[in-house]
Design goal:
Strand order of the largest sheet: 1-2-3-4-7-8-9
Number of helices: 11
Strand content: 5-15%
CATH topology of the largest domain: TIM Barrel
CATH class of the largest domain: Alpha Beta
Helix content: 25-40%
Bound molecules: zinc ion
Shape: globular
CATH architecture of the largest domain: Alpha-Beta Barrel
Distance between the termini: 11 Å
């Protein structure tokens, strides 16, 4: 039994159907058709998978693990992505969702002045009713919402359409985006909440984690972070990511291997993995659904920990 436990649907802010992104159903149909993996999870940014995903997958003989990918932060680090996994049959998603919603509120950015500036620059054209709402003092939206607006046809002038979310961020970087007040979801806090709700937390694509000064984390740093947060496991099967040309496929293979070696030192510490699929136009095949997968023994271990009957 193999698993792809890291995939994004069009529910993610950086996935659009017009650019090869897939809806939950389309993705499940594809996985069923290709037959490369039998266990799947959707890990959309800051959103948990739905009961309907579980039902549709089950009807297609796939084992579905409830999931999500939450952007968090810890002192001294840049963004840390945490994968959340749960068994939709055993736990009430509502409870995790409620806690997540609370965390999300804290993550929202105050951006009234910022949105005003974007309108002045001719980038933004929010619908009239929203325009009023958006530029009210203390109006808060999340970075993800802002990103979605910037890449959406509805909100952006043709001359400033960002096909790619990273281009939009780049543009924003030059516009004092960093100066907007915002609060982040704390990594440890998220891990505590998910544990209380009987879910599991996994450190996503660990070698993408950087310190504030831009240096990349190493194994010692990862160990400290794991001890600090009490996170349940780490991604040890992950493809070379297509949008960051910083790490070669060979280097990433080596890093995967090192991380798995290190993680296997503690038999209770989980190793997971998946393709991190975002869209079909992705030039690297290892990022397509099921092409980077978690082998049998690790898949079974995760399912057992989540209380699946297998
Ligand atoms: Zn991520
Ligand atoms: Zn991801």
């Amino acid at each position: 039994m193999k698993a792809d436990l890291h995939m994004h649907t069009t529910r993610s802010f950086d996935v659009e159907s017009t650019q090869g992104g897939k809806s939950a159903k389309q993705l499940l149909d594809l996985i069923k058709h290709e037959g490369k993996v039998q266990v799947v999870s959707f890990t959309d940014h800051d959103k948990l998978s739905k009961k309907s995903d579980f039902d549709y997958a089950s009807n297609n003989d796939l084992i579905f693990v409830g999931g999500g990918e939450v952007s968090t932060s810890s002192l001294g680090f840049k963004q840390i992505h945490v994968l959340v996994y749960f068994n939709p049959q055993k736990i009430d998603i509502g409870e995790i969702q409620k806690e997540l919603n609370n965390l999300m509120k804290g993550r929202r950015v105050m951006c009234a002045s910022y949105v005003k500036r974007l309108i002045e620059l001719g980038v933004f054209k929010p619908p009239r009713f929203q325009r009023r709402q958006l530029i009210q003092e203390n109006m808060i939206v999340s970075r993800a919402e802002l990103a979605q607006m910037l890449t959406s046809r509805r909100y952006t002038y043709t001359s400033h359409r960002f096909n790619d979310i990273h281009k939009a961020w780049e543009f924003l970087g030059g516009q004092d985006f960093r100066n907007i007040q915002r609060q982040s979801t704390n990594t440890k806090k998220l891990c505590d909440i998910v544990r209380k709700s009987e879910g599991l937390t996994i450190l996503a694509h660990p070698w993408q984690i950087k310190y504030r000064d831009g240096t990349r984390i190493n194994l010692d740093g990862i160990e400290r972070l794991v001890n600090l947060t009490g996170i349940d496991g780490i991604e040890g099967y992950y493809p070379y990511h297509w949008w960051k040309d910083e790490i070669s496929p060979d280097q990433s293979k080596k890093m995967n291997f090192e991380i798995r070696e290190w993680a296997s030192g503690d038999p209770d510490f989980l190793i997971t993995g998946g393709s991190d699929f975002h869209r079909n136009t992705n030039p690297r095949k290892t990022c397509l659904p099921g092409r980077t997968y978690l082998p049998h023994e690790h898949t079974i271990k995760l399912l057992e920990r989540l209380g699946y009957d297998i």
